[in-house]
Amino acid sequence: MNYLVYLGLLNYDDRPVRSEFARKSYELFLKEWHDKGHVHENYNAILGTGDDVSSSDRFYHWGALLGYIEYLQELETDPSSHPPTEVTK
Predict the structure, then answer these.
(1) Structural domain boundaries enclosing 56
(2) To 10 degrees, what angle do helices 15-36 and 65-77 make?
(3) Does residue 44 register a pLDDT over 70?
(4) Which positions ≥6 away from 59 have C-beta within 8 Å?
(5) Per the structure, how many domains does the chain have?
(6) Is the Cβ–Cβ distance between 37 and 18 less than 8 Å?
(7) pLDDT above 70 for 84
(8) End-to-end Cα, the chain, rounded Å
(9) What CA–CA distance (Å, rounded) separates 28 from 31?
(10) Is 62 helix (H, G, I), strand (E, B) or coil?
(11) Dihedral pair phi/psi, residue 66, rounded to 5°
(12) Which comes out higher in pLDDT, residue 13 or 82?
């Protein structure tokens, strides 16, 4: 859901909101990664934990999109880090 929300936020000229959202998403990703060595499929909306229900898979890769959001935000913030858009031979 965070990834879809971030994509929606790209439709608005409000970089501070996108930056804060990306930062918080990344912090959620990193907390579980550092504490437990994995990333969950989904997270509790109140507690921010991913292992509070047995149906949340800890190796399902939707959770990795939390880190991808921060990556996309960094690309937006630093245009020089964009990969080339044209392939040269």
Answers:
(1) 2-80
(2) 140
(3) yes
(4) 38, 39
(5) 1
(6) no
(7) no
(8) 39
(9) 5
(10) helix
(11) -60, -40
(12) 13
Residue type, 77: T
Tokens of 27: 């912090």
Amino acid sitting at position 28: L
In angstroms, rounded to a whole number, what is the distance separating the alpha carbons of residues 48 and 32? 9
Taken in order 54, 44, 7, 63, is the CA torsion positive or negative?
negative
- Is 49 or 88 the better-scoring residue by pLDDT? 49
Distance, in Å, from the CA atom of 64 to the CA atom of 87, rounded to the nearest integer, reads 28
For residue 86, is it within any domain?
A: no
Q: Is residue 42 part of a domain?
A: yes
Give me the percent of the chain exceeding a pLDDT of 70: 73
